[in-house]
Design brief:
The chain has about 230 residues and is mainly β. The protein contains no helices and 19 strands. It has one domain: Sandwich (Jelly Rolls), CATH 2.60.120. About 0% of the residues lie in helices and about 45% in strands.
């Protein structure tokens, strides 16, 4: 196994880095609105509302992205890398819930009929939707724990979509449909056409296209996601 030092801490290299579509470490100075995509093909990330980098909370690196629940989100520019098709994918992040229900965590092709919307529901669990019509794939067996960092991983493997919370499967359902069109944008901190917003900190957000990184319960990462090939 090869190892790297990225300026944050040492960690194993990523054998699937070439499949990473979006990688947001949330690193930077407190209050900064410069959000860097560290994926192999960096996308322009635009900030909306009061979304910014905060040093008040972090899982790694001393800072994270913060959203106040009232119009805050960041959006990566349209890319074919966000059109997940019918294949495998892994969407994962560290999530620190502050407050609120019926909030959006992230979405690709937000607002479109084939985009995935990952949310916190009014019933205080997590939900994966497809499209604005609100086709509910599943509700998780548990929801966010306030003021606690939780690792969330939404994984599609061979047509089965599973949510892992802190490495433990908490909801699953068959879903073989097409996810987003030829190109799509990707929003973090919001969902449903940027109509539902997180009141949360988000750290180390990573989207991997074509790879199901987790197919059984696992131990969550203990270091920032690496940026080099294993």
């Amino acid at each position: 196994m090869s190892w790297i030092i990225t300026g944050r801490e040492a960690g194993p290299a990523d054998p699937y880095i070439g499949n990473v579509s979006l990688l947001l470490h949330g690193d930077g100075a407190n209050g900064s609105t410069t959000i860097v995509d560290s994926s192999p093909s960096p996308k322009t990330v635009t900030v909306f509302g009061d979304a910014q980098i905060s040093t008040a909370q972090s899982k790694f690196g001393g800072s994270s992205l913060v959203f106040d629940g009232t119009g805050d989100y960041v959006e990566a520019a349209s890319s074919a890398e966000f059109a997940l098709g019918t294949g495998d994918f892994t969407l994962e992040l560290w999530y620190y819930h502050i407050s609120g229900t019926d909030t959006g965590i992230c979405a690709n092709n937000s607002g479109a009929s084939a985009g995935i919307n990952f949310t916190v529901t009014p019933f205080s669990n997590f939900r994966a939707y497809i499209g604005t019509s609100g086709f509910n794939i599943f509700d998780s067996s548990s929801g966010p724990t306030a003021s606690t960092w939780q690792h969330l991983a939404l994984v599609r493997s061979s047509g089965a979509l599973t949510l892992y919370i802190d490495g433990t499967a908490a909801g699953t359902a068959d879903w073989t449909g097409v996810n987003a069109g030829n190109t799509a944008t990707f929003s973090v901190g919001s969902a449903f056409g940027n109509a539902r917003f997180s009141n949360a900190y988000i750290d180390d957000f990573r989207l991997t296209k074509g790879i199901a990184r987790y197919t059984a319960n696992f131990t969550p990462p203990t270091a920032p996601f690496p940026e080099v090939l294993g």
